[in-house]
Amino acid sequence: MNAVPSSIESVLVENRVFPPPPQAVQGARIGSMAAYQQLVDEARADPDAFWARLARENLAWTKPFSKTLDESKAPFFEWFADGELNASANCLDRHMGTPVEHKTAIVFESDDGKVTRLTYRELLTRVARFANALKAQGIQKGDRVVLYMPMGIEGVVAMQACARLGATHSVVFGGFSAKALQERIVDVGAVAVITANFQMRGGKELPLKAIVDEALAMGGCEAVKTVLVYERTASAWPRVEGRDKTFAEALQGVSDDCPPVPVGAEHPLFILYTSGSTGKPKGVQHATGGYLLWAKLTMDWTFDLRPEDVFWCTADIGWITGHSYVAYGPLAAGATQLVFEGVPTFPDAGRFWKMIQDHKVSIFYTAPTAIRSLIKAAEADGKVHPDRYDLTSLRLLGSVGEPINPEAWMWFHRHIGGERCPIVDTFWQTETGGHVITPLPGATPLVPGSCTLPLPGIDAAIVDETGNEMPNGAGGMLVIRRPWPSMIRTIWNDPERFKKSYFPPELGGSVYLAGDGAVRSADRGYFRITGRIDDVLNVSGHRMGTMEIESALVSKTDLVAEAAVVGRPDDMTGEAICAFVVLKRARPTGDEAKAIAKELRDWVAREIGPIAKPRDIRFGENLPKTRSGKIMRRLLRSIAKGEAITQDTSTLENPQILAQLGEAY
Ligand code: PRX
Which residues form the AMP-binding enzyme C-terminal domain (predicted)? Predict the structure, then answer.
């Protein structure tokens, strides 16, 4: 199959331009490049006035703020700090008494195709009741609550209920292992865990509660007094008396009414862990006011949300995309959204297309990896080809999480968008809270593979190591020079790491370093993201730290002496994880090597989760090191790619191991 070749070559020659189609321009909030430029100019002329205006227009404040941005503790920027609001009230209560009250908030489709609908009024009642249940467990403002939940209404309700009480949630993706969950519970200092007995994915029942039990038994989690269990399936699960309660038990007798607790705008709404360049994941802390403003604003700017839209973001609530564009943004904007429990390939790879058809989805927001795997499935089996479905309800497509190669972009445009829907290729990160560089559907001429231009107020630039701006056409590091409301506030428990990771002194100490490389096109100045510049990989749109995987491998102390992990490009998953391993016993070959590679993959899945399993494992008697003992990672990357070694290996202490590492298991 040739539909998904490596993107690099073709991006360099990309010169197709797709101007916004008339139906996207008509009635658009930002309906021309001139209108975009006007907002950019307004933001540049007086940033404080610009953000203050938008924060007042877009959010309901219980106490108005008097100061917009406080830079006195930079890079610990504070936004709207003396204002007070409640995030859940802004997503739900705010719509009561408006036409949105009885509008459908969530259309939920389960793994096995059952559909449930909830209006905003009904969702508010669900959230208020659940918040009362949390309150009855003693959970209050400032507490941290970990969620380990399937995709579904209950997960969104639990997040909103925490926000309603001013409790800070930390959602852990349901694919992470007990060990990864425990580390997060300990680091965040959770007092409660909200989970489900099982989750349903692709017709399979997968345990969640049992993993929570395992995590809590690992120690350090003594602060967790309550585990609330949503009984997703009828299957039995082990109960710990005095600690565990079902949702039904917790909700018994609670009132439908729960006044939202006002919090300061800087109050942490959530902490979401993501991978960084060291072994330990970082707890990215977001603030209530600035974050929510961004979630709402980008629904309006990037998706140009219309009242009749049916919005579908396929991301899981365990990731930032599921926070901003499932749990908060669509609700703050009063949208009708589809929430899906399952996987795109069950019962077959036509599932997404069927759901778009059945629910008349108008905005479809997904990841390039999903698109690429569905291209492959459609080409292999005509029965699941999108051309066989009625996708005419779509008016806008979005892409997120990794670079989209122009071939996948064109297929998305042609077969899903019917050549009429703009594609917003949204660049952002867990740390940015929401989109920062993205096309606007009614204004921006699109170039496949490019996230185009920064949103108004985002002062993005490409610089060299000393902070000098690079000319168009020359690559460099992506930075954002001015603070913006939804930026990361700190790394939970580690303010020093926050400063070091994102605001390096070489760039002046208050310029945000994104960790991505980028280049601007010579003609339009459009941004194109070239990939991470740190030791972070992007596998199927999921961030994985190479050091995190290395730590997991070397923690298998009976077997592994040393490990190094690098990425290599992969047509389907963007990047693939390649591990180079030195064992404490003789270097294995053949079947023995295969068996040990499997054992190591299973180990990594236990330590982190299946998403971190290395694709290739190569065994050497040693790793290629310089005479001073540094692992030659650049060389490892070439080996992982299967490239001929052109680098100078004369400093290599042990050149014979290059041949050993040539073999992957
Ligand atoms: O490398 C960039 C890539 O994903 C990273 C952020 O990952 P995460 O925090 O998990 O958030 C993913 C969802 C926003 C970035 O540093 N990335 C994200 N969006 C794009 C992208 N790379 C290229 N193009 C994008 N549109």
Answer: 548-630
The closest alpha carbon to 502, from 108, 494, 141, belongs to 494
Chain-centroid distance of CA 271 in Å reads 13
> Rounded to whole angstroms, how far apart are CA atoms 564 and 176?
22
Beta bridge partners of 244: 227
Residue 321 to residues 114, 116, 313, 439, 560, Cα–Cα distance (Å)? 24, 22, 8, 17, 36
- CA separation for the pair 252, 455 (Å, rounded): 46
Is 531 annotated among the ligand-binding residues? Answer: no
Q: Is 204 annotated as a binding residue?
A: yes
| 245-289 confidence digits (pLDDT tens) | 999 999 999 999 999 999 999 999 999 999 988 778 999 999 999
Residue range 297-305: average pLDDT?
Answer: 98
- Average pLDDT on 100-107 reads 98
| Ligand 1 center to 114 CA (angstroms) | 32
Residue-range domains of the chain with CATH:
22-491 (3.40.50.12780), 540-660 (3.30.300.30)
Q: How far is the CA of 321 from the centre of ligand 1 (A)?
A: 10
Average pLDDT over residues 119-125: 98
Q: Peptide bond preceding 347: is omega within 30 degrees of 0, i.e. cis?
A: yes
Tell whether 401 is in a known binding site: yes
Distance 97 CA to ligand 1 centre (A): 38
Euclidean distance between the first and final Cα of the chain, in Å?
Answer: 24
Average pLDDT over every residue of 211-240 = 97
| Residue 233 among known ligand-binding residues | no
Say yes or no to pLDDT of 380 above 50.
Answer: yes
Determine whether the shortest distance from the Cβ of 450 to ligand 1 is under 6 A.
no
d(CA 263, CA 163): 9
pLDDT at residue 57 is higher than 70: yes
Alpha carbons 416 and 344: distance in angstroms, whole number: 15
Structure tokens of 620?
A: 């050497």
Q: Is the CB of 322 under 6 A from ligand 1?
A: no
Residue 28 Cα to ligand 1 midpoint, Å, equals 26
Q: How far apart are CA 617 and CA 549, in angstroms?
A: 12
ipTM of the complex: 0.99
